[in-house]
Automatic annotation (TrEMBL), chains A, B:
Domain HTH lacI-type residue range list: 1-55
GO MF, one annotated term: transcription cis-regulatory region binding
InterPro entries documented for this protein: HTH_LacI, LacI/GalR-like_sensor, Lambda_DNA-bd_dom_sf, Peripla_BP_I
Entries under Pfam families matching the protein: LacI, Peripla_BP_3
Keyword Transcription regulation attributed: yes
Organism: Thioclava indica
Gene3D superfamilies from the UniProt entry: 3.40.50.2300, lambda repressor-like DNA-binding domains (1.10.260.40)
Protein name in the entry: HTH lacI-type domain-containing protein
Keywords: DNA-binding, Transcription, Transcription regulation
Amino acid sequence: MNLKTLAQELGLSPTTVSRALNGYPEVSEATRARVTAAANAAHYHPNTQAKRLATGRAMAIGHIIPISDRHEIVNPVFADFIAGAGEVYARSGYDMVLTIVPDADEARAYGELRSKGNVDGVLIHAPRVNDHRITMLESLGLPYVLHGRISGIESSYSWVDVNNVRAFERATNFLLDLRHRRIALINGIGDMDFARRRRRGYERALAARAIALDPQLITEGEMTEAQGHDQARAMLALPDPPTAFLTASLLSAMGARRAVEEAGLVMGRDVSILTHDDELGYLKNGTAQEPIFTATRSSVREAGRRCAAMLIAQIESGNRQPISELMEAVLVLGQSTGPAPSR
Amino acid sequence: MNLKTLAQELGLSPTTVSRALNGYPEVSEATRARVTAAANAAHYHPNTQAKRLATGRAMAIGHIIPISDRHEIVNPVFADFIAGAGEVYARSGYDMVLTIVPDADEARAYGELRSKGNVDGVLIHAPRVNDHRITMLESLGLPYVLHGRISGIESSYSWVDVNNVRAFERATNFLLDLRHRRIALINGIGDMDFARRRRRGYERALAARAIALDPQLITEGEMTEAQGHDQARAMLALPDPPTAFLTASLLSAMGARRAVEEAGLVMGRDVSILTHDDELGYLKNGTAQEPIFTATRSSVREAGRRCAAMLIAQIESGNRQPISELMEAVLVLGQSTGPAPSR
DNA sequence: CCAGCAATTCAAAGCGCTTTGGACGGGCGA
DNA sequence: TCGCCCGTCCAAAGCGCTTTGAATTGCTGG
């Protein structure tokens, strides 16, 4: 079933049928009703490719996911982000096209996406410090929105991000208020921009109370259970071990908890753990009313929604002015933190 | 830059240029070389929409992801599966288009995908018992491959699946050989087909040794850390608690381990845990040489690759004969299992 | 030397839609 | 009554590619 035959059946021209279905005013309401009725009855949906070719709009948003041996971007956070963005795309009639590329080919992938014209814009994930993608996209002239920010870049660009500095500064202050002085940071991978910012918040809070940084208490890595466990265990074995851990993800926090328990200590009493919680769909921090871990909480799915909405707005308005949105994390109290044990 | 202008610059007709680039034989090697050189220099890539319209092939595979309040399909397993499939798509020149829909609209989404013609086929995730999607896709005439199987359906269809029955039968037998008699099953959601099959394997092994099923030792649910923890804790509090747990995912196993440790027991000595491990990229079961949990192991990413390859093969061959592939899980030995403690 | 053939190349139609520029007719004001 | 405008509809061009059918060229063999 296509436009032409539908038009023939109705005794109308394709022009009129097209206009009726797309809500143009130069068609009488009577025929519009007749046309929509017939279209529904015939389960007619205009061919996407033809529509795209005629309008020059791909009605699709690209996500490029680099895959490397070094580490995985296809992680749990990514899945939830995608889900949030996908909701918005679906509502707005956009397709989501995912491209998995070996990370050596990433730049080429953007260029091809552009020149093949199969997306109207792209969403950029997991920016690193001094990430080169922004300059590349600028030169391509392809609309984009960044999930996160890039510390090394001066020029302005569109982004949605959590206020990571503030979140981790508050978290650190919270632990300091509980009289913790040996606070460890189990961070995400060091050249990820969000990890850099979290560390900055942590350092700022310590500096404000004139507490010297102890490099032994700062680690980084892929945010897995094993990372949390191994790094926490190593730090607990130090001569002067930390009394509190700040972790970058729920998985790391779970690993840290295991290390704490293995050491015969009680979480929340002997050792406090405070983590960032992305509110992943399948990895809950207890219940909303009763969290297990005290956490800085910010929904990554919501971030996905906002990124998508922002990108679509940019595309449809044709506006190239960069816009941005900073989300604040809330600090929720769980059972994993308590006053520092007195020595 | 488009075909026409490229052809003009070369002093050739669009026909010839198109043929040169697409490898048709009726063009001399000399001009083909000249054309490809010019195309590369100009960074020319044929417009995807136009190509699709002209060829009638979308060069895209659809994944429909229903989203419900009840539970999340956007889970970690999904992310890894997607990554595997995406690798194959990228190599074969296909796009991956993800559609997120409220699960009430799922059927409609397939219909639209079909009639709008923006995919050449679809990959079906997470089949349930008596899943209706197969019959629907058959009637739509849209090529598909199923990741998993559907117990209630007699007709044949294309699928890739792990031999879940056998995996869990072997796992159960392994525990039985270690003299465990109270073996608990912490399963995935009950109406998921894979959960049903795993349970069948478990039941079959017990039946073979004439051990009665104890419904108190069988639970199901979303495979999260909390599920593993809560359900294991409840079972450990029974008058006659299990000495071994069989869990459906690494996350559940981690939860179960926590419950075991909270009860003052030692995993691998007092209580054994054996889990299924999907080999997720960011959720490793220790290292390959030294697993933490004894596990039935099968890479879901590899499953994604095989599903994608199978679907593309079907599409390109035009073959509508159902094909299928059964993957066997391997049983790897970790530190989480040991002989049943003597009473 | 020319018919016949293979190797190259091209013009033009077509994929299914949108959109521009008109055509047509009815109602209104002058 | 006539002219004009507005509401409604349509024919045809065009989006950028592929592909059919035909044209052109250069050779070969009789």
